[in-house]
């Protein structure tokens, strides 16, 4: 296992069921690995600490092919290794989303998606985080986003 931070590994943040099922390659470049390290240390570890529970990663890094296969936006932060779709263990998702979006964690974007997971992304290196909070409903190719204040 390759640790990116104390509680997150490269293997878990690059694992993809879709890639496995479809035989797609999902291997990040060194730059994308550095972004995954930043994501783990600046967003995921602080989220774990704030919520006081382990976090399950559903979808971290995605190659362009994998991102397309899951219906992700072409400019998704997942492709750069700057985003993770996560589920905190044993914390209601809406409570976790509200705690995270109002926390000092320097996220670029946080989305409560389909009441099923939380997307958290960090800004590109050298850019200020937008701290954009959204809810999403719909399905791949037909997402509807609403800002949360």
Explain what the structure shows.
The protein has 149 residues and is α+β, with helices and mostly antiparallel strands. The protein has one domain (10-147): 2-Layer Sandwich (Muramoyl-pentapeptide Carboxypeptidase, domain 2). It contains 6 helices and 6 strands; from the N terminus they run αααβααβαββββ. The protein has helices at 10-14, 17-22, 30-51, 64-69, 77-80, 93-101; strands spanning 55-59, 83-88, 109-113, 117-121, 132-139, 142-147. Strands 1-2-4-3-5-6 form a 6-stranded mixed sheet. Strand 3 (109-113) and strand 4 form a beta hairpin. The chain is globular. The chain starts with 9 loop residues before the first helix and ends with a strand. The mean pLDDT is 96.
């Amino acid at each position: 296992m390759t640790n990116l931070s104390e509680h997150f590994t490269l293997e878990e943040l690059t694992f993809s069921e879709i890639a496995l099922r479809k035989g797609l390659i999902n291997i990040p470049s060194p730059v994308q690995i550095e972004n995954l390290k930043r994501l783990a240390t600046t967003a995921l570890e602080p989220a774990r600490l704030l919520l006081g529970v382990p976090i399950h990663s559903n979808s971290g890094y995605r190659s362009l092919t994998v991102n397309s296969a899951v219906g992700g936006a072409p400019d998704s932060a997942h492709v750069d290794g700057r985003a993770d779709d996560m589920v905190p263990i044993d914390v209601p998702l809406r409570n976790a989303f509200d705690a995270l979006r109002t926390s000092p964690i320097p996220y670029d974007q946080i989305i409560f998606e389909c009441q099923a997971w939380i997307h958290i992304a960090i800004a590109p290196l050298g850019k200020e985080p937008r701290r954009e909070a959204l809810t999403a409903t719909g399905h791949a190719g037909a997402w509807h986003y609403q800002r949360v204040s």
